[in-house]
Structure formats: structure tokens, C-alpha cells
Amino acid sequence: MTDTEATTRGTEWLAGAGLRPTRQRVALATLLVGDGQHRHVTAESLFAAVCENGDSVSLATVYNTLRAFCDVGLLQEVTVDGSKSYFDTNTHDHPHFFWEDEQRLSDAPADELEIARLPGAPEGAEIASVDVVIRLRRKSG
């Protein structure tokens, strides 16, 4: 895939959500979806990738842009440990593996997950979503 094709894919991804294609948004969108593959990133890992690519974007802009992408449904935020956020380009409901040793998130097979029953929501509330993060660590020995 050429750089032009990747940029076009990123620009179209933004347009599909009604977001104006600013230089910074296009640079980040191209890294996120330019090759057509789903990925899980942190703000810091995306910032490092955009810098490596030679683009000039601040870390604050990366955070703000990821938030904007989530707000319009382009990304799904997955929180691990209550403080570490990963951003997933696959916005369909699906479980995740969190590799503790590598601090890495990956998709888990959704067809193997069964949730037989959920507790009822408290009075006046409804369940908005269920996030499943399965924590993994390498076996020792």
C-alpha cells in the first residue's frame, strides 16, 4: 500500500464520521487505519509513531484527537487498571486480552465468550455496555 492510499483511507475514515480533515487528524487517522488493519494504541504509542513518521503533533493534540475520535464513534476506549487507556479501531463489541508482561491489548475471540447472566441494573439505570478484559501473563518455566 502506498502512502497516498493510506492517507486517502484515513481521510475517508474521518469524512465518514463528519470530522474535518485537519493535518493533525489526517496524520493520526492514517496511522490508525491507513493499512486497513485494526489496532490498539495508547496516546503515547500513537504519539511516538507520529513523531517517527516525521509529523509534528503534540501529545496533548494526540489525546484530544483520540477523544474526538471516540466521541464520534471511530474508536472504542478500553480502560485497563482504571488508569491506562487503549484505543481500538474495531468498535464492534468484543472481548480483549491484556498481556500484563508486555502492557499490550489484543482482541480475544468473541465467539468463544459466553456471558450467561448479568445482574440487573439498579433502579433508574440501564446497562450501557459490558467490557471484558481478560488479563494474561506468560507461564513461568
TrEMBL record:
Record Gene3D superfamilies:
Winged helix-like DNA-binding domain superfamily/Winged helix DNA-binding domain
Keywords associated with the record: Cytoplasm, DNA-binding, Iron, Metal-binding, Repressor, Transcription, Transcription regulation, Zinc
InterPro entries assigned: FUR (IPR002481), WH-like_DNA-bd_sf (IPR036388), WH_DNA-bd_sf (IPR036390)
Q: Which locations, inside or outside the cell, does it occupy?
A: Cytoplasm
What Gene Ontology molecular-function terms does this entry list? Answer: DNA-binding transcription factor activity; transcription cis-regulatory region binding; zinc ion binding
Tell me, which GO biological process terms does this entry list? negative regulation of DNA-templated transcription; regulation of secondary metabolite biosynthetic process
* GO CC, alphabetical: cytoplasm
Classification via PANTHER family = FERRIC UPTAKE REGULATION PROTEIN, ZINC UPTAKE REGULATION PROTEIN
What family does the Swiss-Prot or TrEMBL record give for this protein?
Belongs to the Fur family.
- Complex and partners: Homodimer.
Q: What is this protein called?
A: Ferric uptake regulation protein
